[in-house]
Write a structure and sequence with these properties.
The chain is an alpha/beta fold. The protein contains 19 helices and 17 strands. The chain has 3 domains: about 1-150, Rossmann fold, CATH 3.40.50; about 170-300, 3-Layer(aba) Sandwich (Rossmann fold); about 315-485, Thiamin diphosphate (ThDP)-binding fold, Pyr/PP domains (Rossmann fold), CATH 3.40.50.970. A 6-stranded parallel beta sheet has the order 2-1-3-4-6-5, with helices on both faces. Strands 13-12-14-15-17-16 form a 6-stranded parallel beta sheet, sandwiched between helices.
Length: about 500
C-alpha cells in the first residue's frame, strides 16, 4: 500500500502492519496515487494507496484522475476525523466521498463498522469489473477504532457479470466486405487479456493495427501489421481517414480516434478473435491495403528520423540519440515507462515495431510527472525485470524528492532525464507562433548531483556515444540510478 502518513491513518497503519502488508511511503500524495495507478495499469489488479484527510486527499486525486481516464483499477483510502463530528467542523472536515465521486466508479464513506469488510470488497469488485477503474473509500477514525465481534460482520455477496454478446457473425460480414479495414486496439483490449489474440488476428487477416497514443499497449511482439500510435501530433501515418471499415477493440471515442466520426462501418468488438478469424480470409484488396499502410508507415518514420537528424546536425545530443540507445538496450523483459511530452513524442514515433503491455505511458489523461511513482510501482509489480523511466526534465521534477523514498525502500530503477531546459512541446509551439517562448523555458538543474544528494547513483551522458554504455552500467548496478542527458531543443511535430 503506497502512502504518506497523516491524520486518520494510524489505526489503518497498525492493522496493515499486523496483517503483514508492505507499506511504501512517499513524500507527496501524488506519488502514492501514481504508484497505485501504475500498479493497477501494469497488473490489471487494483493498486492501493492511503492518504490523510483534506488537502492530502486532494493531492492524491491526480492518480485517481489518471486511472479514471485509462480505466485503471485502483483503490484510494482516505483517512478522516470521527464520523460523529463530520459536518461540525472537525479537523480537515470535508466530504471526500462526494469530491471523488465524479472520478471514480464507486466512492463512499465506511459509515458502519460491521460493514467495513463488505464495503471494502464491494469497492474492490467495482474496481476490477469491466470496464475497470478507480474507487475511493473514506475511513473515519471512530469507525477504524471500533471493535466488532466477527460474527456481526456483514459479508459481501458477489453477482456474476453478464457475458458480452456473441456478435462475431455480424462483425465478420462487415469485415469481409471491406477493402481497407483498420483495427484500433485500446486499453480495454489489454484489460480484457486479448493482446496476443489481437496480434494473431491482425496478422492472419492482414489488417493494419494501431493503438491510440497513451493507451495500454497490446502488441507484445514485433508484427508486420503494427502501424504505430494513433492521435494528436504523436500519431503515425494517415490511415484512419482512408479506412473503409474501423474495427474498435477496447478503444474509446475521443480526439485521438477523431471521435469515430468517419462515415464508414464501425465494428465494436469484444469476442473470440480466433473464432472470428476462422470464418474470414483476407482478400487481395485487403492485402494491398496492408502493403500501402506499411509503405506509409516507412515514409512517416523516415520523415521523423530526417527531422531529428537535421536538428541534431545543429549540434549537441538529441532525443533521437536517446531513443536509438534505448532501442538497442530494451529486451523482452524490460519495463519501459515514458513520462514527458517532447521526449515522449520521439519515443512513440521511433519505437515502431511493437507496443507491448510492459511499456507504460501516462495514460489517456496526458498527465506529466507520474513517472517516479510509476517506476516505483513497476519495481513492485515486476521485481525481476529491468525498469527504465524515460522522462523529460520538466516531468521529472514534479516529484523528484521521491527518489529518496525509492532509494531508502530499495525500489531500484534507471531514470533517463532528457534535459532541454524547457517544457519542450510548448516552447516549440511558442517559437513557431510568437517567435519566443512564453512561460515555457526552464532553468538548468544538475540532475546527477541532485540524485546523489538523496543516495541515488548518477551519471551524465553529454555525448551521443556515451548514452548506451551509461545506461547499461546503470542497469547492471541494481541501484536507483539517474542518467542525465542534456539535449538540444527539438520537436518532431
Amino acid at each position: 500500500m503506497a502512502t504518506l502518513c497523516g491524520h486518520g491513518l494510524d489505526p489503518l497503519y497498525h492493522a496493515a502492519r499486523d496483517g503483514g502488508m508492505r507499506l511504501v511511503d512517499t513524500r507527496n500524495e501524488q506519488t502514492a496515487s501514481f504508484m497505485a495507478d501504475a500498479y493497477g495499469r501494469l497488473t490489471r489488479t487494483p493498486g492501493v494507496c492511503a492518504t490523510s484527510s483534506g488537502v492530502a486527499f486532494v493531492n492524491a486525486l491526480s492518480g485517481v484522475a489518471n486511472a479514471f481516464f485509462d480505466c485503471g483499477p485502483m483503490l484510494l483510502l482516505s483517512g478522516a476525523g470521527a464520523l460523529r463530528t463530520a459536518g461540525l467542523g472537525h479537523f480537515q472536515d470535508m466530504d471526500q466521498a462526494a469530491i471523488a465521486r465524479t472520478l471514480t466508479k464507486y466512492s463512499r464513506v465506511i459509515d458502519v463498522a460491521e460493514r467495513s469488510g463488505q464495503i471494502l470488497e464491494e469497492a474492490l469488485d467495482s474496481a476490477a469489473a469491466a470496464p475497470q477503474g478507480p474507487v475511493h473509500l473514506t475511513f473515519p477514525m471512530d469507525i477504524q477504532t471500533t471493535e466488532v465481534d466477527a460474527k456481526a460482520l456483514f459479508r459481501h455477496v458477489r453477482h456474476p457479470s453478464p457475458e458480452p454478446a456473441d456478435d462475431w457473425r455480424a462483425a465478420a460480414a462487415v469485415i469481409a466486405s471491406s477493402q481497407r479495414p483498420l483495427l484500433i486496439a485500446g486499453s480495454g483490449a489489454f484489460y480484457a487479456g486479448e493482446s496476443g489474440a489481437l496480434a494473431d488476428f491482425s496478422e492472419q487477416m492482414s489488417i493494419p493495427i494501431v493503438v491510440p497514443i497513451w493507451d495500454r499497449g497490446c502488441v507484445e511482439r514485433p508484427v508486420a501489421t503494427f502501424m504505430g500510435v494513433l492521435g494528436a501530433a504523436s500519431g503515425g501515418p494517415r490511415l484512419l481517414a482512408d479506412a473503409d471499415c474501423v474495427i474498435v477493440a477496447g478503444a474509446v471515442s475521443d480526439y485521438r480516434t477523431e471521435f469515430l466520426q468517419q462515415d464508414v462501418p464501425t465494428v465494436f468488438l469484444r469476442c473470440g478473435w480466433g473464432e472470428l478469424a476462422d470464418h474470414l480470409k483476407p482478400t487481395q484488396a485487403q492485402r494491398e491495403w496492408l502493403a500501402e499502410a506499411q509503405r506509409r508507415r516507412r515514409e512517416f518514420v523516415a520523415s521523423i528520423e530526417k527531422t531529428g537528424a537535421e536538428q541534431a546536425a545543429e549540434g549537441g545530443t538529441h532525443a533521437i540519440h536517446i531513443v536509438a540507445a534505448l532501442r538497442r538496450v530494451l529486451d523482452e523483459e524490460t519495463v519501459l515507462l515514458i513520462d514527458g511530452g517532447s521526449i515522449g513524442q520521439w519515443a512513440h514515433q521511433l519505437l515502431t515495431d511493437r507496443y507491448p503491455s510492459r511499456w507504460l505511458t501516462c495514460g489517456r489523461s496526458g498527465v506529466v510527472g507520474w513517472g517516479i511513482g510509476g517506476a516505483m510501482a513497476a519495481r513492485l509489480a515486476r521485481p525481476a525485470s529491468p525498469v527504465i523511466l524515460l522522462s523529460g526534465d520538466g516531468a521529472f521534477t514534479f516529484n523528484v524528492a521521491d527518489l529518496e523514498c525509492a532509494v531508502r525502500q530499495n525500489l531500484p530503477f534507471v531514470a533517463i532525464v532528457a534535459d532541454d531546459c524547457a517544457w519542450g512541446i510548448t516552447r516549440a509551439g511558442h517559437l513557431r507562433q510568437f517567435g519566443e517562448p512564453i512561460a515555457s523555458a526552464l532553468g538548468a538543474i544538475q540532475f546527477a548531483r541532485l540524485a546523489e544528494s538523496v543516495g541515488a547513483r548518477a551519471a551524465v551522458a553529454a555525448q551521443p556515444e556515451e548514452i548506451e554504455p551509461a545506461l547499461r552500467a546503470a542497469l547492471e548496478s541494481g541501484q536507483v540510478s539517474v542518467l542525465h542527458v542534456p539535449i538540444a531543443g527539438g520537436n518532431p511535430a
